[in-house]
Amino acid sequence: MRTVRWETEWVEDMPDVMERGKVYISIKHRLTEHLCACGCKAEVSLPLGRSDWRIEYDGETVSLRPSVGNWRLPCGSHYIIRESRTQWCRAWSPEEVMAGRIRDRQEKEWDIKRKLKERVWWKRILQRILAAVKDKWMRLTGKP
Ligand SMILES: [Zn+2]
Fold this sequence. Notes:
Blueprint: E1 7-10, E2 22-26, E3 31-35, E4 43-47, E5 54-57, E6 62-65, E7 68-69, E8 78-82, E9 85-88, H1 94-141
């Protein structure tokens, strides 16, 4: 049986046995899990993050972005959970799955690059401070 309406379950750790029709969210593990909406009972585990999945919770209903594409499952389900309802999407062709994966990877790479840039920026500031301190030290003591 297909899941029509989802319940939200906030957990610390994921339960050993999941109930159908529940979206489990763990902030601690930055993870969300549920049983596939098609009713095949497969466990779907999605990481939460800027370049992964995002949760929207309005106090009552839950939305997941982007869509859930269970390409690795036999059922190949593709759906969106929006305001606790399942919206079915067209199943992707193998080419589209591949394109989606490449896009995913690119987004991840951009994210890593952006983080690295931030790190370089901080390093530069730190080096500047260190150089200034060293300069002062040399002027005070005459020693390098
Ligand atoms: Zn399924």
